[in-house]
Amino acid sequence: MAKFIKIHENDNVAVALETIAQGETITVDDVTVTTVNEIPAGHKFALKDLPVGTPVVKYGFKIGNTTADVKAGEWIHTHNLKTGLGDLLDYSYEPKLPEEKFTEDVTFMG
After folding, report:
1. Residues with Cβ < 8 Å from 45, sequence gap 6 or more?
2. Between these two residues, 79 and 105, which has the higher pLDDT value?
3. Do residues 73 and 34 make contact, with C-beta atoms less than 8 angstroms apart?
4. Is the model more confident about 93 or about 75?
5. How confident is the model at residue 20 (pLDDT cuts 50, 70, 90)?
6. Could you tell me where the beta strands, DSSP code E, fall in 9-96?
7. From its phi and psi, is residue 2 left (phi > 0), alpha (psi between -120 and 50) or beta?
8. Based on the number of CB atoms within 10 Å of its own CB, is 107 exposed (0-12), middle (13-18) or buried (19 or more)?
9. 26, 30, 39, 44: which is deepest, by most CB within 10 A?
């Protein structure tokens, strides 16, 4: 089983599916990173260096900005990420899907 998942092709983070030890080398797509610290299961880690103020992209969407320089392979959490949720404490993943268009005058006669 994989130890991580990159949810969307545009993400600059991956999510640990189990605890990943410090110093472990991981290849995500064509990017290889070595974990800077232990990454707890369910938490994010950077796939590339993210200077302070860089948008953090997960699910293909910006979820916040870094509040410190983050190295590739470093754990990303509240100590180095300011959420883009503002005062909203509860949220759910609800991507906006393109509206499908159907033709209403189509019929079938047998």
Report:
1. 4, 13, 14, 16, 20, 33, 35, 39, 73, 74, 75, 76
2. 79
3. yes
4. 75
5. very high
6. 13-16, 25-28, 31-34, 44-46, 55-58, 61-66, 75-76, 81-83
7. beta
8. exposed
9. 39
Is the predicted pLDDT of residue 73 greater than 80, yes or no? Answer: yes
pLDDT at 36 over 90: yes
How many other C-beta atoms can be found within 10 angstroms of the C-beta atom of residue 46?
23
> Tokens representing 25?
């080398």
Looking at the DSSP bridge assignments, the partners of residue 15 are 5, 44
Question: Cα separation of 67 and 54, whole Å?
Answer: 8
- Annotate 81-91 with b (16+ C-beta within 10 A) or e (fewer): beeeeeeeeee
When the candidates are 3.40.190.10, 3.40.50.20, 2.30.130.110, 2.40.40.20, the CATH number that belongs to 4-83 is 2.30.130.110
